[in-house]
Amino acid sequence: MTSKLISGKNDLNFISEIPQQSKTTKKIHFHYTETHTSNQSNGNFAIFTGYSLLVLSYFKLLRPKDWAKNLFLFIPLFFSGNLFNWIKLEKLAWGFLAFSLIASSVYILNDYRDIEVDRNHPVKCSRPLASGSVSKTVALGIMSVCIIAGFALSLVLRTKFTFVLGIYFLLNVAYSFGLKNISILDILILAIGFVLRVKAGGILAFVVISQWLIIMVFLLALFMAVGKRRDDVLIRMKSGKDMRQSVKGYNLDFLNVCLAIVCAIIIMAYLMYTVSPEVNARFGSYRLFYTALFVISGIMRYLQLIYLENNSGSPTKLLFGDRFLQINLLLWIISFYVILYMPSITLFNQ
What we know:
Helix content is 76%, strand content 0%.
């Protein structure tokens, strides 16, 4: 009898413990579900972040900041006085896209061939190929797509435009495969690239380009290219390593003299351009020489960045990062705009 009571008591105790175990199980299950949901959310966020960084690396591989150089396509239309011809503007916009695609393919090719050199560069080491964020296979695939899309688009626009674009592409391929290692020739090729941009813009806009415009663009591009090589020489002096083979043919004294020569020629050429009877007759104004103020101040600011701040790397990076250059460029554009597109304003007339 006693054993039965004890047995019954134990059974009651066992039964009374069942709900407690059930509550604990529910708590554990709820905690597991909450933790699982939280981990899943974190996992989805990590996947989204990973894809975003990958897409950003692909976009960075194209160097979209350097597309600003292709705005030179619009220069002939601006100086022709037909900036608001929407048909020509649309065509130039498509030409800008085609040129940007081909330029990006050239940038990828150059980065592909300079992977090891860029890894030792203090700035270029962060590029997608040099840092390893984009594989070589993917980079070559993107380059192929850019080439096909760029030339296909150019053929739709105009055959002559495709011809100039082809010259730009072949010249830069030759540059990537060895011409960039030849001193002086390397900076001349960079300057010619800007002239080809202006020529391509003139072809799309059906604008005849004057020799003055070609000379000014070439000199300005040459000036920036010399400044960029000076930056490479400074890096060599600090690190003891040549970032590119052509740097062996340069030193600070030589490049400083080149900068002085090119600066003097730019200013003289621009002044001669603004007071040329032919140019004044074409624009219907003698007031073009007023714009020389902004050209001179812009060159002085660029020299200040080069000599005082030792900052003469990428011209586009300088333009995006220096407020003085931005305001100066804007004022130059506004002054030329007023002279070309608002001839009725006689404020500065005698």
